[in-house]
Amino acid sequence: MSKPSQRNAMESREAILREAEKALQQIVDSGVAENTIVEQMQRFRSGFPFTRLIRPCTPGDGIMLVPAEVRSRLVSKFRQAVDEGRVTKFVPASGAATRMFKSLLALYSRDDNPLSMQGDDADSRFGRDFFASLDKFAFYDELKRMMVMDGISLSHCLDNGEYWPVLNYVLTSKGLNYSHLPKGLIPFHKYSDTSRNPFAEHIAEAVEYATDKQGIARVHFTVSPEHRQIIEKHVSDVLRRYPGIRFEVSYSEQSKQTNTIAVDLTNEGFRSRDGHLLFRPAGHGALLVNLNELQGDLVFLKNIDNVAPDRLKGDTFEYKQVLGGLLVELQGEAFDYVHLLRAGVPDEAALVLMTEFALSRLSLSLPEDYYSMSDGDKAEFLLMMFNRPMRVCGMVKNQGEPGGGPFWVSGPGELPASQIVEKSQVDLDEPAQADCLVSATHFNPVDIVCGVRDCDGIPFDLMERIDQETGFISIKSKDGEELKAMELPGLWNGSMADWITIFVEVPLSTFSPVKTVNDLLRPEHQS
């Protein structure tokens, strides 16, 4: 080999080594364990299996209806647990408001001058609805004030179709800067003397149903690191409105160790324009780490944008306590059985009672050979089934909202199991599965109370109970190039797949989500 060829070969090897060293350093900096990245790369190649739906859960078949005469008893049980300091409210609040304002951002970026919204496209229709009802939003007065400070009349802009300056003050740092704030800081509801954003509404909820006899209310927010400081300051200001309550408010951030590597369409590591490997947040399933580290007892889980104004909170307050009381009751009975089973094999009569409890109260399924098992094997099986985290999940009647729902699925050992299933988990190319999905009568609003300690008061290790087969892969883009992104098993489906799951029908009035800013024009968000 000639010297130039040798030199070129050496330079090529050095370049490869530099790239390898660079990639290794990026992996180290990502915080994701190397073996985890290897597993993720293998998963991109193999994919995730679809969840097999058996049938939707319905009232009397997987969904419990709680009659009025029972609710007062459950509320009393819940109040006792609250007074014992067992309750914490857990709110995933790291989401940005960008999606809320997606259509407005599209309008703002148009080249039209002046901005025209006369088209029949979705963004133009959205913009017309937004501006026609601008005075109905809780942030209207603040927007008007900020524009006046700069010598601009909001009413003049609206009367003359000068929409771009208004969007400038709504979306950017020139004014309210809403496209760069977390969703929880956007004012949702107008009151006579103030307005409230979701953080303030969740605190108001905690005061009402989660304050113990010592006057302590415990709330945990998961937040993004870039917004943590302004969120903490805002929440601190809100807490001053409740001088009689002692708040224990805590915060956590999604660990970068839960991020997933992105790949290109050939399943090789995706590199952005600067040559760096791309790691992405792995969806709400990553928050299981935060829930696990909270070391709570009875933990209420509810999305940041699902809040109602005070005039509509009555049903929410009642059913939060009903769900919590049901969890206390069922968990208490299950734990009593765990203690009995640990002490030895119960007699036949006790096993019959435990079996009936598993079937009728916990919606558990038994293997086909259960009744032919020895008493010892039955006891071992029941102990395994009862000694798990438990969750009671409110379900609302299906109104066509996007999201998951309650289904009977084929679980471990082919046993039917009640689970929350997302659309992305179902094989829609299989007609029977697609038909089953759309036949669901109820919808998951993420209204869940979790029992995460065992019968001895020791926190379960929630990380041991994940169904790793329930993540999913989607096509995204970065810098105009398509990539594959992976989401971890969702917090309320795959991450809680091995929990005892009880579904309860709750009123539709307890569900008031806000996905776009115009959702705030719905009657339930108006004063």
Write structural notes for this entry.
With 527 residues, this protein is α/β, with parallel strands linked by helices. The protein has helices at 3-30, 34-46, 68-83, 102-108, 122-132, 140-149, 154-159, 163-171, 198-209, 228-239, 288-294, 313-343, 348-360, 375-386, 431-438; strands at 53-56, 58-59, 62-64, 87-92, 189-190, 195-196, 216-223, 246-253, 260-261, 279-280, 298-302, 390-397, 405-410, 416-421, 442-451, 472-478, 481-487, 500-505. It has a nine-stranded mixed β-sheet with strand order 2-3-18-12-15-11-4-7-8, with helices on both faces. Helix 3 (68-83) crosses helix 12, helix 4 (102-108) packs across helix 8 and helix 12 packs antiparallel against helix 14.
Indicate the topology.
Blueprint: H1 3-30, H2 34-46, E1 53-56, E2 58-59, E3 62-64, H3 68-83, E4 87-92, H4 102-108, H5 122-132, H6 140-149, H7 154-159, H8 163-171, E5 189-190, E6 195-196, H9 198-209, E7 216-223, H10 228-239, E8 246-253, E9 260-261, E10 279-280, H11 288-294, E11 298-302, H12 313-343, H13 348-360, H14 375-386, E12 390-397, E13 405-410, E14 416-421, H15 431-438, E15 442-451, E16 472-478, E17 481-487, E18 500-505
Parallel strand pairs: 2-3, 3-18, 4-7, 4-11, 7-8, 12-18
Antiparallel strand pairs: 1-13, 5-6, 9-10, 11-15, 12-15, 13-14, 16-17
Helix pairs in contact: 3-12, 4-5, 4-8, 12-14, 13-14
